[in-house]
Amino acid sequence: MEATLNDTRPDIVPCWSCGGPIDGSAFCDTCKAVQPPGQRDHFSRLGLNVSFDIDPATLDEVYFSMQRKLHPDRFATHSPKEKAYSQQQATAINDAYETLKDPHGRADYMVHLKGTDVLPEGCNLINDQVLLIESMEMREALAESETPADVDIISARATEDIRVCIAQLSKLFANNDIEGACKLTTRLKYLKKLAQEAQAHRAKLI
Length: 206
What we know:
- The chain is mainly alpha-helical and about 210 residues long.
- The chain has two domains: about 15-100, Orthogonal Bundle (Helix Hairpins); about 130-205, Up-down Bundle (Monooxygenase), CATH 1.20.1280.20.
- Helix content is about 60%, strand content about 0%.
- The chain is built from seven helices and two strands, in the order ββααααααα.
- A two-stranded antiparallel sheet has the order 1-2.
- A hairpin with a 6-residue loop joins β1 (about 15) and β2 (about 20).
- It is elongated, with a radius of gyration of 21 Å.
- Residues about 1-10 have low confidence and may be disordered.
């Protein structure tokens, strides 16, 4: 299921300018002043439900719409405080977008966001012998590759494994299996790095 607009309301806080109620929006509904970004997760900052399945077109649409509204150039004649807040908002929105648009970044973020009570250390302490052996074998195969065709075989396998890994992550997050998602997120990290190394190795062989 694709992520949809978030229908939950964050805590109400007063506007720094007029004191009106702010429900987490970037602007005050009363005086229209830009608000500080506050401590919000990346999904709620972009108005999306927490979900691994994000439609890239929807994410782009939301991001570019918010960036146009909050670009610091639009507030050049406003008060120094509001100009500073617009810059902070634009930076926070950009960070959220860069994290969520990449499947690995999104998965890693969701593990930390949803697994604070399950895996407070994140995925950093995973000790998966199967994954370590797979990683070493594929890197050895890459190091022994002597032709671009040899590298292409490894790259094709890595690309397919990445595709399958992302599909499996979708199911794991849907089932709230944070530990399983954590292990698969670590594997996705290794696969992405392998794909990058294969590309670099192939360039040396041409």
